[in-house]
Amino acid sequence: MSKESFTQPSEGELEILQILWKIEPATVRQVNELLSANKAVGYTTTLKQMQRMLEKKLISRTDQEGGHFYSCTLPQQQARQNLVDKLAQQLFEGSGTQLAIQALGSGKVSQGELAELEKLLQNLKDQQSHE
C-alpha cells in the first residue's frame, strides 16, 4: 500500500491495528477479547468495524481451518510514518522538526529515549557531513 493510497484510520481502527500488529493473524474473537480488556465493546461491533477496515483495505482476511484470520496490509512503521507525515502537514506546515520539538517539549521523554534521539541526531549529522 503506497503512501498515496493510505486511508486515514479512525481511532477505533487504530486500536484494532495495534492489536493485529502484535498478534496477527488473528480472528475477530481474539481481537475483540483484547479490545474488551480496556473498554466495553461487543463482538458484533468489532466484527462490523473489521469488515469496514477490510473494505478500506486496512486489513486483509484469509480463510483457514478454524475461521477467518485477519492481518494488517501495511507494516506498523509505514502506518506510523504516514500518520506522522499527515500530522506534520496539518499542524506544522510540513515541518517534522517542529513536530518533534512539540512532542519533546511535553517533558515526557525517558533517558533511554533521549539516548536514542542523540544517536539519531548524530547519524543525521554524519550523513550530512558525507554529502
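the 2nd protein, sequnce then structure:
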Amino acid sequence: MKQKRILVVDDEQDLCEILLYNLKAADFEAEAANSAEIALDKGTSQYDLLILDVMMPGMSGFELAEKLKADRQTSRIPIIFLTAKDTEDDTLQGFGLGADDYVTKPFSVREVVARVKAVLARSQSNTIKDSVISFEGLVLDLGKKTTMVDGENVGLTRTEFELLGLLLGHRGQVFSRQQIFDAVWPEDVVVSDRTVDVNITRMRKKIGKYGSLIVSRQGFGYVFESEE
C-alpha cells in the first residue's frame, strides 16, 4: 500500500522539521513548504493531506485554503490548520473554509499525527461512499471498479482502470510519467516509459471516442483534456 503524502506549510522551519520527522516515523511521506507561495509552486494536487499554518508572511493559510477549495483539482484534499489563533471566530472561519480539523499551538506532535490519521480515515470513507467520477458518457465507479462508456460496460485491466481514474479524476492536469508510475504501479515494480505508453494506448482504444481526450504533451506527460 502506498504511503500517504503529507505537505506541511509553515514558515517556522524548526516546527516543520519536527513534524516531518514524526510523520515519517508514522509511515507517511512528508514534505514541507515554508510559505503558501512555495506550496503552490510545488503542486498541491499531488498530496493526500495538507497541514497549513494560518499566520504566514504573504498569503495566509486561510487564503491558501480558499484558493485550493475553489480549484476542482484540489478541492477534495483534506486540510488541517495549525495556528496560535484559538478564538471561536477564527475556528469557525477555518471550518467555514472547508478545514477538516483545527489544532492550536502549542500542541503535542503525537496529537497532530493522530489527527492526521483520523482525517485521512474519514476522507477515505467519504471517497468510497462518493466514488463515481465521470465525463459525459464516460463513468468510472471507483468502489465497484466498473467502467461505462455511453451505457455499455467496458472491461479494463486494473492498471488501465487506475490510469483512467487518475487522469479523469484530475481533468486538465498534466501528469508526468514519473507521477503516473508513483500513482498507479506498486512501489516494488520497475516499469519503463514505454510501459505507461502501451497501457494508455490500450485504454484509449477501449473507451472509444473519449480516448482522443487523453492527450500526450511531449516532454511533459499525459492529460485528460476537456472544456468543462
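The chain has eight helices and eleven strands. The longest helix spans residues 109-129.
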